[in-house]
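Lay summary. Proteins are chains of building blocks that fold into shapes, and those shapes determine what they do. In this project we predict the shape from the chain. Here is one chain we studied, written as its sequence of building blocks.
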Amino acid sequence: MATSRTAHSPSPPPQPPIAQTPGPRAAQFQKLFADALHHTIRTCSYSKFSSCFPTPSKYAPQTLTSIWQQITSKVEASAKKEFEEIMIERDIVAGLNELERLVGEAKNRKESGVEAKEPLHTLPPERLYLAHLAPYLKQTETQLEGELKRLQAENEELVEGIQGQREESEQLLGGLEAFITDLERANELMNNEVDGNGVKKQTADVEQELRAAGREVKL
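And here is the predicted shape, written in a compact code that computers can read:
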């Protein structure tokens, strides 16, 4: 009896450690983050950045370029660091790798119509725990992907808002420049009208015309 029971319920072999090398799901998740970050950084191009600062762009382009490079580099480095910290803290790679393995096994069993060969009571606690955790990991992956897409959409809206404000500022500056030009022209006209020599000349012309008219009347 003991021999038969041992044959049906053998002690499970030690499970190999979960590989920390990203599998397909983990690699795709990392690529999704890298693509979203690259798109965000590329959206904030120097041409768009410099258009918000026309004066420094015109008189100190090298300084403005350096500031733009520092800002984009810092944002990119900070985002990558925070992402890596979350990956390590939550052990995302190992979890997604285990999820990949469990999904693959389940798919193979479903396609072949074969039930699991290992009785549940022979599985180590880690396997059972990870199998129970698989739906949560899948949900977490979906939530993170949705969060990345939401942040990407917000960044695009922010860039569009900045572009709209820049266009509005350019229109206001154009109107102000036209108003200043009109004021300068009006000032020049007023200066010409009140010029001393001009008034004296006009007065002398009028007096001369009056004298000529007086002589004509006497004759």
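What the prediction tells us: The first helix runs from residue 2 to 8.
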